[in-house]
Amino acid sequence: MIAIIDYDAGNIKSVEKALIHLGQEATVTRDAETIQNADGVILPGVGAFGDAMGKLRAYGLVDVIRRYVDSGRPFLGICLGLQLLFEGSEESPGVEGLRILRGQILRIPQEKGLKVPHIGWNNLRYPRRGRLFEEIGGEDAQNGSYVYFVHSYYLQAAEEEIVTATAEYGVTIHASVEKGNVFACQFHPEKSSETGMGILRNFCRVCGLED
Question: Does domain 2-206 have CATH number 3.40.50.880?
Fold first, then answer.
């Protein structure tokens, strides 16, 4: 079973539907015991960094998430869920993130011809192809795949060796990371057609679940 953490953020139901489409049992929950007993956990969401951290604290989920990650079982952050795993965000100065991974969330700079927020399909490149991208985007480790983004802020990871996918949008966006049992995507795999379904399928396989 995969637990999807419910902290009143947007876009949670679409992740649930995608997992069900893959034949997986998915539970949207904020119950600590249910989360701790899951084969894998997903932290999705869209919204503001500071509001989201406030909700995670209000629901007692910060320690629940850290305990689950410490257990060594697979954990996936999606969009806002990726950002919350890091130290802080320019969107909410002074608000501390989960600090599970090192790095900062920065605002996408305004540039002529580029709209912020960054909404739509963009091409990935794989500096270090991680487990989420096995059999995704062809044989060439640099070959890209198109995925769907909706965001105004982007990750600058402190440890470049954890970056498994990047995208270009005025700056180089660290679009996906993997460190041990922790995975995260800035883009929305649940909205990224067959490529996204393949990424979620790979996460399920990391969890020991077959479709």
Answer: yes
